[in-house]
Design goal:
It is a single chain. By secondary structure, the protein is an all-alpha fold. 68% of the residues lie in helices and 0% in strands. It is built from 10 helices and no strands. It has helices spanning 9-15, 21-37, 44-65, 70-75, 78-81, 88-118, 124-148, 152-167, 174-179, 198-221.
């Protein structure tokens, strides 16, 4: 069992302060975008809500998880973090989990803005469930890539966009259709549409769980705290 170093949680949140800027900017969308398009489209700002939330949540996930591991390796911070007997897996899984908690705080604030402006109370549990899956899949992908690759977000973003294109267009190329099963199943984690359940839920959860497990395995095999050889 991996022990989580809760004593570092405060420092982690402080270190993540830069990553909070993007979600905070996304909250402004709840004020500005609906006002701009409320005159058009079915349902006005209320009908637009799940689409805006889904987009902003995806951007927030990328912001909260990007360079989660490789930034410390690149800057040499791991030499300080792991100079003591501290399991890197516990350290980074805790940081990743704090990103998930931050995402839900962001979503609640987002929903609160809509309620305050339009008197529309969103189905919180519906969106919390879908965003948890989305964080597991997209956030797990970035976490995994960050543990093995120096440019995690530049690989994760194209993969996510390819997946969304493959499962949301009638003109998907054959080559993309054949490999779409390997792409992150974000189409099953969308805040737009019904709650994921049954085999779809199992597939999305297993896919995301495997990515997180892969990240932990990579962290287990890495050599930390060994000077320049650690990266």
């Amino acid at each position: 069992m991996i022990k989580l170093p809760w004593g570092y949680a405060g420092w982690m949140l402080r270190d993540m302060s830069g990553a909070f800027l993007t979600p905070l900017l996304m909250l402004a969308v709840a004020f500005l975008l609906p006002a701009v398009v409320s005159a058009g489209g079915p349902g006005g700002p209320l009908g637009l809500f799940p689409y805006v939330l889904n987009f902003c949540a995806f951007v927030a996930i990328l912001s909260l998880t990007k360079s989660i591991v490789n930034r410390d390796l690149k800057r040499g911070y791991y030499r300080i973090f792991f100079s003591r007997p501290l399991d890197p897996r516990g350290y980074y899984i805790l940081r990743w989990l704090l990103g998930g908690v931050s995402l839900h705080v962001f979503a609640v604030l987002f929903e609160g803005i809509y309620y305050w402006k339009y008197g529309f109370f969103p189905p919180v549990l519906h969106y919390a469930w879908q965003l948890s899956l989305q964080y597991l899949v997209a956030g797990g992908l970035v976490f995994f890539l960050s543990s093995i690759f120096p440019m995690d977000i530049f690989v994760a973003l194209p993969l996510c966009l390819l997946s969304l294109y493959a499962h949301n267009t009638l003109f998907c190329p054959d080559w993309l259709r054949h490999i779409s099963v390997l792409l992150p199943p974000l189409y099953l984690c969308s805040a737009v549409g019904p709650v994921t359940g049954g085999l779809d839920l199992i597939y999305a959860a297993v896919y995301g769980g495997c990515l997180v497990a892969g990240a932990l395995l990579a962290l287990r095999l890495r050599r930390f705290g060994e000077g320049g050889r650690g990266d």
